[in-house]
Amino acid sequence: MGRTYKRQKTKYAGVFYIETTTNGRADKTFYIRYKDEFLKDRELRVGKLSEGYNVNLCNAKRNEILHKIRHGEELPKIANRQTKSKLTLGQVATKYFEYREVHNSARSNQNEKYRYDTHLKPFFDHKLLYTISIQDIEKLQHEKLKTLAPKTVNHITTLLGTIFNYAITKELYKGTNSILNLKKLKIDNKRERFLSTEEIKTLINEVKDNKLLYLFCLLSLSTGGRATTIINIQKKHIDLNNRTITLTDFKNKSTYKGFITTDMVTILKDHISTLKANDNILQINNKPISISQIQKRLKPILDRLFNDGLDVKDSKNRVVIHTFRHSFASNLAIKGTPIYTIQKLMNHRDINMTLRYAKLSPDSGRDMVDLIFKKIK
């Protein structure tokens, strides 16, 4: 005798489920009931929880059917086992990245492809789309959180969701996006750590013999540009006579001016002498470097110099490449640079983003507090 399944009611009339298993894991299969135009009882299987369905979606589907019955319209089709895509995530990802080549920059595509190959491919590349469950994605979150920051993990799951959406839009997949029910990880972007001038000297001395890292650190720490901004600096962006660099802010989609020191003018003058106008300043084997190539080389150095004993999740205190930007603004504030000047140099659209550095300014009130207590003593 075959196994019998008990139907479980939900909070919605006409929506119920049975408890099943998918790939050895607990699952739920949702059904809806309604009366057709001839007042006959009908029952339709909608889909599984692991496929992204839930009671709310099922109730919406049932209401849609009832609405069409009342107005004599053609009924919507319900996904069934015959309509499931037999494509794996890897096959869809290949099509997705081919599509991106037409609509996105080469650098953006390179970064996204690296993210897929490094983080998603080992988990899901061989899996059929409809078998990737919310539980599978939560497991991915858990594993990646062991070594990566929450923000980075969110980027990874967002890419997975984007590939799902591509498959649905291009009608390669008739199911739902499993990411829809995924809870994003909470992010605390308020980094408190910055490098003091002495720490900056230590870092520069450490990388001095590596021309690539030396230039990257000098440019980052003297302009405050994000890593993506720095690696995209070309010869034509540098004005040695006026000691300025035209920086591209890919986040705000704008350009702005940064400044370089007289010492850097000497270093850059020699470095760019053999480059063409459109050549990137930072290259490996005559090709523009990527974020991952810089990260791979700098991370061990930063960990050894500044992150010893710190938890990998301690984003507030760990020194990472983005700390260079934070250090630039922090040291400007400490030297008494007006907050609006810092805003301009950081290319902040909102002054509130810059005000976080005001507490480091000499006129922040810290000296006044010291003065009060000296008088009390």
At a glance:
The protein has 377 residues and is an alpha+beta fold. Helices cover 45% and strands 13% of the residues.
Description of the structure:
- With 377 residues, the protein is an alpha+beta fold.
- It folds into three domains: 7-82, no CATH class; 89-181, DNA polymerase, domain 1 (Orthogonal Bundle), CATH 1.10.150.130; 197-364, hpI Integrase, Chain A, CATH 1.10.443.10.
- It is 45% helix and 13% strand.
- The protein contains 14 helices and nine strands.
- It has helices spanning 55-70, 89-103, 106-124, 134-144, 150-169, 197-207, 211-223, 227-231, 262-271, 291-306, 323-334, 339-346, 351-354, 366-376; strands at 7-9, 15-22, 25-35, 41-48, 238-239, 244-249, 254-259, 283-284, 287-288.
- The strands form three sheets. The protein has a four-stranded antiparallel β-sheet with strand order 1-2-3-4, covered by helices on one side. Strands 5-6-7 form a three-stranded antiparallel β-sheet. A two-stranded antiparallel ribbon has the order 8-9.
- A hairpin with a 4-residue loop joins strand 5 (238-239) and strand 6.
- The longest helix has 20 residues, at 150-169.
- The radius of gyration is 28 Å and the shape is elongated.
- The relative contact order is 0.08.
